[in-house]
Amino acid sequence: MFLRFLSAAPALILAALASACRSNDITLDGNPVKKENSKYAELSGDTLRIGNSLIERTFLWNGGNLVNAAITDRTTGRVFQNISRDASISIGTGNGPGENGRLELETVQSDGIRPGRLEATVTCTVDGTEFRRVFRIYDGCPAIACDNYVQGAAAEEISAHSNAADRKNIESTADMKQAGRTGSRLETFSFDGLHWQTRTVEFSDVTDWNNNLVAERNFIPYRKTGYRGNLLFARDSRDGNGFFILKEAPCPGAQVGYGGSDFVCESGTFTVTGTGAMEEDLKQNGMIRLYSCVTGVYGQGELAALKALRNYQKHIREHHPDRDEMIMMNTWGDRSQDSKVNEQFCIAELEKAARLGVTHFQIDDGWQEGKSPNSAVARGSFRNIWENPLYWTPALDKYPDGLKPVVDKAEELGIKLGLWFNPSIQNDFEDWEKDAGAVIRLYRDYGIRVFKIDGLSIPNKRAEENLRKFFDKVLEETGNEVVFNVDVTAGRRGGYNMLNEYGNIFLENRYTDWRNYYPYWTLRNIWQLSRYVPAERIQVEFLNKWRNTDKYKGDPFAPAGYSFDYVFATAMAGQPLAWMEASNLPEEAYGTASLIRQYKEVAAEFHEGIILPVGEEPSGRSWTGFQSISPDGETGFIIVYRERNDRVSAGIRTWLPENSKVLFTKILGDGRNFRTMTGENGRVVFRLDSPDSFAMYRYSIRQR
Q1: 95: buried, middle or exposed (CB in 10 Å: 19+, 13-18, 0-12)?
Q2: DSSP 410
Q3: Residue 18, pLDDT above cutoff 70
Q4: Per-residue pLDDT at 280
Q5: CA separation for the pair 281, 466 (Å, rounded)
Q6: Long-range contacts of 129-135 (CB under 8 A, 24+ apart)
Q7: What pLDDT is recorded for position 173?
Q8: d(CA 230, CA 215)
Q9: Can you say how many angstroms the Cα of residue 410 is from the centroid of all Cα atoms in its chain?
Q10: DSSP codes, 323-376
Q11: Phi/psi of residue 601, each to 5°?
Q12: Own/partner pairs for 316-319, CB < 8 Å, 24+ apart?
């Protein structure tokens, strides 16, 4: 369904459904308009309403230069009333009425990757700048996303915020206004009240250099201050209700045109800064895409906030087990680089990978005719790749019959073959169409559906747009069957909150050769991220613990000190990645095949739920774990790890309701079945008899 309406008829109601209490169908100019479940958008007079059964956003139309009026949590009934008349978005533009304001509605069906949704597109011109804002409204989601586009913008970006130490004493109301202007913005809200318990969450990628990936800051907004992060949660202490803003952008350090902050807060005013465009970007012809913003609501309690966020995140990309579940092996982790990669090596690796229970085997750098800078056999380059038209074809000396013998062996063993790929970065991915063609040919010639995307650099808007064109072209030409493992280990990339619709995240490179792999480090990284990023979208490494034992001599947390079952178990919350050569594993390693087989039976169901961390932060000495809350809310899974400590049992704070009778059934690892009554904060006492052990339980709430 596609409907177009002009502001010249502001009294017309534009809706797929105005509210849950209205009739199933409405009429527009005498013609019936079928309701779209609970999604709706309507323009009546100077008021625009968009929403579903859980959330509504209301705007003053203002000629299309929208001014936030209110956000309504339709579950709790709380209305967050905006008290400012500032335009919601501004790129050096004013707050006055827009010109040529227009609202368009389109019902977009699921394409197997992006879920079905109602898109409400608002366009207008303000002070010579044209805006297009596409609001994405999903059924059953307490958040509404907005994709922002601009054309002909003035060259004004976020101004730096002055240091509070340089400001004068406040002796009058006028003194409070000297904190500096906010400049351009993607979104702004001003709510009454002074008791906003606020938290921002900053993420770090570039994981070759960072091993602390999540930083939280808790504060009550006071004077105008900038904060870094992709996420902001704000809860009104007066009634316990709150909202969140997710900035769909790279991590702060990698954003285009970054001005030093993502949010500017002052008392009840919350502004999203850092549009994702620089002066030269704004001067381009045509619409350019800025960063997107998502606004959601939640009721009392931390779990309500995290479930609201995760609900939206699960609407970014549909998760299909036959496509998205993977236990992948990539041989790069044993540091042979491309020195061993050839047909015979891959076939031998596949046979051993099948013994272990691997579902996907990915050939990293070295399968291709062209040589990269990371080649161990010949110094190559990523520059001017297309001067060699055979660069992305199988290396003839390694694969004399192409990849077909390897593909055939993989199919025989029930394993899916994947490849490494590095798009041509020169001139801001100028050769994106050639790159897409190379991937499409590999799909058509060999049926390869999984590609690790490495070497990305997004220094400006043109690079970002061309990279999106690459991804979209591949998906369009392959019927949306290709999955990308998007590497975040180095460079300016999408991070954890942008490009999520294209596949999963290749999280980190860790090597026993360099003594930077510890099972509890990896567990800690996924544990911290899982609070705010879907764990099922992250590839989590486990390594060959028998390699380089001499380099860890005397280290109490050396990988060799753990069972191989435990090493695998540290990756179970995400998509496990065997970062190793199977040929280097000792025979005893294949005993873990039994655990992997059992894990595969429940992995899809585990990943279907909302996965959140429980217990203590992994430290090598803690009791820690994850909980997966099933959609029914009454069942789910808990993984518990007893790290190297002397506590045979421990009370772990979970996300289960207090004072509930719960049945725990062990399905993996150690431990035993038990029934218990949850304590304060969902506390449950778990028992594991040995240090460095784990258990996965299925739970069922029997009585509240």
Answers
A1: middle
A2: H
A3: no
A4: 85
A5: 13
A6: 129/91, 129/92, 129/93, 129/153, 129/154, 130/287, 131/64, 131/65, 131/89, 131/91, 131/98, 132/287, 133/66, 133/89, 135/41, 135/50, 135/57
A7: 56
A8: 11
A9: 30
A10: HH---EEEGGGGS-TTSS-SHHHHHHHHHHHHHHT-SEEEE-TTSBSS--TT-S
A11: -70, -25
A12: 316/114, 316/500, 316/501, 317/113, 317/114, 317/500, 317/501, 317/502, 317/503, 317/537, 318/110, 318/112, 318/113, 318/114, 318/115, 319/536, 319/607, 319/608
Q: Long-range contact list for 52-60, CB < 8 A, 24+ apart? A: 52/137, 52/138, 52/139, 52/140, 52/141, 53/20, 53/139, 53/140, 54/140, 54/141, 54/142, 54/297, 55/141, 55/142, 55/143, 55/144, 55/296, 55/297, 57/135, 57/144, 57/295, 59/88, 60/85
Mean pLDDT, residues 509-516: 98
C-alpha 324/C-alpha 604 separation (Å) is 9
Q: What does the pLDDT look like over 100-135, one tens digit per residue?
A: 999 999 999 999 999 999 999 999 999 999 999 999
Task: Please give the model's pTM, rounded to 2 decimal places.
Answer: 0.93
Residues composing the chain: 704
Helices 432-446 and 461-477: angle between axes, nearest 10 degrees: 20
Burial annotation 270-280 (CB, 10 A radius, 16+ → b, else e): bbbbbbbbbee
SS3 content of the chain, % helix, strand, coil (to 5): 25, 30, 45
What's the pLDDT tens digit per position in 162-205?
444 444 554 555 554 544 445 799 999 999 999 999 999 999 99
Task: Give the per-residue pLDDT at 397.
Answer: 96
4-7 contact pairs (CB < 8 A, 24+): 4/102, 4/104, 4/105, 5/43, 5/102, 5/103, 5/104, 5/105, 6/101, 6/102, 7/43, 7/61, 7/63, 7/64, 7/100, 7/101, 7/102, 7/103
- Burial (CB < 10 A; 0-12, 13-18, 19+), residue 665, is middle
pLDDT digits (tens, 9 = 90+) for 327-340: 999 999 999 999 99
User: Which structure tokens are listed for 214?
Assistant: 């999540």
The enclosing H or E element of 434 equals: helix 432-446
Instruction: Specify the residue for token string 């177009």.
Output: 4
pLDDT at 27 over 50: no
CA-based nearest residue to 485, from 533, 527, 538: 538
User: What does the pLDDT look like over 243-285, one tens digit per residue?
Assistant: 999 999 999 989 999 999 999 999 999 999 999 998 888 877 7
- The closest of 391, 377, 376 to 438, measured between CA atoms, is 391
Pull the structure tokens for residue 391: 């660069």
Rg over CA atoms, the chain: 26
Rounded-to-integer distance, Cα 391 and Cα 393, Å = 6
